[in-house]
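Attaching the record inline, Q. Sequence:
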Amino acid sequence: MKRDLDLVRDLLLALEERHSGHIYPAKLKVAGRSGYEVSYHLAILEDAGFVRRPEVTITPGSVVSGRAIQQAGSSIRMTWQGHEFLDTVRDPEIWRKTKAGASKVGSVGVDLLWGLAKEYVRAEIKERLGISLE
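Structure, as predicted:
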């Protein structure tokens, strides 16, 4: 399956909207996307360090159901890095410019895409505030 950066952004936006800070992947729905697409992209977001599953620790002697362990281990939350990336590409116009710029050079990885988005944000800051961030 090919990585879909629009879906990556949509998933991060959806995760951020969760008041609890975490969600079970099976409950995360994105309009027009299959469960397979969502699951795959959540897995690669985890690979990239943008989301993670909480560690499950059990105190010796405690009684915990297998279902509770399974549920705790299967929930996901966004990491600091995930929030940072999302904050950079949140603005729809910045996202549009970033994708357009990336398409001019062909395929780029997330690090380069993120760097490109940061440069567009810096340009917006300079234009709107007259401040140059170097």
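The chain has two domains: 1-79, 91-134. The beta strands are 22-23, 51-52, 76-78.

More tomorrow.
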